[in-house]
Amino acid sequence: MNDFLAAILLGIIEGLTEFIPVSSTGHLLLAKAALGLTDPSWDSFIVLIQLGAILAVMALYFRRLWAVLIGLPTSAEARRFALSVLVAFLPAVVFGFLLYDFIKQVLFESPGVICWSLIVGGVLLLAIDRWSPAPRQQDAMKLPLPTALGVGLFQVLAMIPGVSRSGATIVGGVMLGIDKRAAAEFSFYLAIPTMIGAFAKDFWESRESLMVGDHLGLLAVGFVVSFVSGLVVVKVLLDFVSKRGLAPFGWWRIAVGAVGLAWLYLA
Q1: What does the alpha-carbon distance between residue 74 and residue 3 come to, in Å, rounded to a whole number?
Q2: How many whole angstroms separate alpha carbon 149 and alpha carbon 147?
Q3: DSSP-H helix ranges across the chain
């Protein structure tokens, strides 16, 4: 496949899957394998285009985030919200730096791990959707710090490709007593520092290879496409989760994981 068409396709997949609990990285890595994209630079491409989807969240929540930013000196609520996001972000910083090489060199190259992670995560989504505890927290901007830290610890599980960052944080939040809609919204907020940090680290690690050939052009294409498709998903996801729950995503994960395993073992 033409590299620019591949970049467009991967950008669409990223934007459509980043914020729903199906694992954008898992889908991207399986798509990369299916398309025969063997150049190691595509692994960095997959991480870097995630920033496009994150900027979609920042664009849609700009007024709310800006109000928090300018309110930090005077508003206790703004400071508490910012601190809750920071506390939730810290576990990813610690474990991300400790496990970065293992994740990129081993787990990113294991389609079987991705497929099984998708299936197991799908079963967990079905279970939590049916037997979730009664919510105690309704507002994503007013979470207690221990609850925010718990969500951050769940996010660490998403370092395994196929687990899903949004899936881990939403499920973790629901298990900790956060309403499903609020858990999804807090997952959006937490994605901002998490994915910006992942982008910065991977961009620095890959800076030399990105300057070769059309890599920057491909990255720009994937970035823009993921931004646009991410806008669409963020606009509809909260209402969808409120009305339909998490079960549709669980069934989707199981189906994709099963198809991936069949492809791996029968091809």
Answers
A1: 50
A2: 5
A3: 3-17, 24-34, 41-48, 50-60, 62-71, 76-105, 111-131, 145-156, 165-175, 180-205, 207-210, 215-244, 247-266
Q: Can you give the residue range of the structural domain that contains 133?
A: 3-266
Burial class (CB in 10 A: 0-12, 13-18, 19+), 246: buried
Look up residue 138 and give its amino acid.
Q
Could you report the per-residue pLDDT of 78-122, keeping only the tens digit for each?
A: 999 999 999 999 998 888 777 766 666 555 567 788 888 899 999
pTM: 0.82
- Which residue shows structure tokens 């293992």? 102
Domain total for the chain? 1
Of 142, 138, 145, 191, nearest to 168 by C-alpha is 191
SS3 5: helix
Residue 174 CA, chain-centre distance (Å), reads: 17
